[in-house]
Amino acid sequence: MTNALQPDTASDSGVLARKHGLRLGIDIGGTKIEGVAIGPDGRTLAHWRTASRQGNEAVLEDVVRVARKLLGLVHQDRGIATVSLGIGIPGLVDSAHGQVKEAVNLSIRRMDLGPQARSALGMPVRVENDVNAAALGASRGLGLPSVAFINLGTGLGASIIRDGRIIHGASGCAGEIGHVPVEPHGFLCKCGQRGCLETVASGSAIQAHWPHATPPLPDMIAKARQGQADAQEALDLAIGGMATAVQIVGVSLDPDAIILGGGVTRTGPALLELVRSELARRGRASGFVKSQDLPDRISLAAPDRRIGAIGAALAGAVDDRDPSKRTQ
Ligand SMILES: [Zn+2]
C-alpha cells in the first residue's frame, strides 16, 4: 500500500478543469484498487492503493473506504468542494445506470454500484468499464480531438475517446473489435464465432499459442530472433492480429492517435516496432494502407499504474456538460 500527496505535472487543458472541484477516481481491478483525487487545476492531489476483495458487499465497502481515505488525504479544510466520483471496473457496465454485470474477477454477477456508492458517499457517481476509463486516462493531455485505445489485455477491444468523452455507441459495444472474425477457419472464440481477432492477438491467445513462458511475448520475440521457426510463426500470428486491429480502428474511426495499452504492451518498444513494421509492410503492398500513415499514428500507453484511476476521475466529472447522462 502506498499513499502520497504528490503534485502531477500533467493537467487538463481548457475551461473544463476550472469548473470542477475535487474529482475522485477509483479503478477496481481483480487484485488491487487504485484511487486518485484530482484537484480543480487537474493535478493529482492524493492517491491510494489497496488490495481488492471479492463480492458485491466487499467491493462497495472498499469503494467507500478508498473514497473517504482520499478525501482525508486531501484535507477538506482546503475548501475544495468534491464534485464527483468516477469508478472503473471490469465487466459489462451500463454507465447510464451505474450498473455492473459479470465482473467475474470480482465475483460480481450483477450490482447497482453507481446508485449504492452515491447513497453511501453523497456525491454523484459514474461507473465505467475499466478499459474505457484507462482509455480516457491515456488520452488525457494529448490535446487531440479523437483518440482510439486498443486494449491488449486478457481480451482485445478498443475504446474511443472523442473530445474528452467516452463513446459507448447505441448498445454499448462500440469498439468491441476483438470479436470481428478475421479467419473463418480459425480458432473457436468464447463468443461462439471462429477466428475472432481476440483468438490471435489478445494476452490469453498469445499465452495459449506460446505456453513455454510467462509472459509469453518477450520470450517469443527472443526465440524468433534466434531463428526458432515455431516462435516466429506464433509471433507473426500475434503481430498480424494487432496490425489488423490497428487497421480496423484506422478505417472505421480515422482517429488522430491510436494508443496500444493493456498488459501485453508491457513488452515495451520491441512490440511497438514489430506492429509498426508489419503495418509498413502492408503499406508497401497497398497505397491505400500506406496513405493512412498508421505506423506514425500508433504509440504505447505510458506505463502509469494510475492511468485507469485518473481516467475514472475524468469520466466521473465529464458529464457535467450533459446532466441528463449523469447517474443520479
Ligand atoms: Zn469472438
UniProtKB/TrEMBL annotation:
Organism: Bifidobacterium xylocopae
Database matches in InterPro entries: ATPase_NBD, ROK
Lineage, broadest ranks: Bacteria, Bacillati, Actinomycetota, Actinomycetes, Bifidobacteriales
Domain of life: Bacteria
Pfam families, alphabetized: ROK (PF00480)
Entry similarity comment: Belongs to the ROK (NagC/XylR) family.
Protein name: NagC family transcriptional regulator
Coiled-coil regions listed in the entry: none
PANTHER family attached to this UniProt entry: BIFUNCTIONAL UDP-N-ACETYLGLUCOSAMINE 2-EPIMERASE_N-ACETYLMANNOSAMINE KINASE, ROK (REPRESSOR, ORF, KINASE) FAMILY
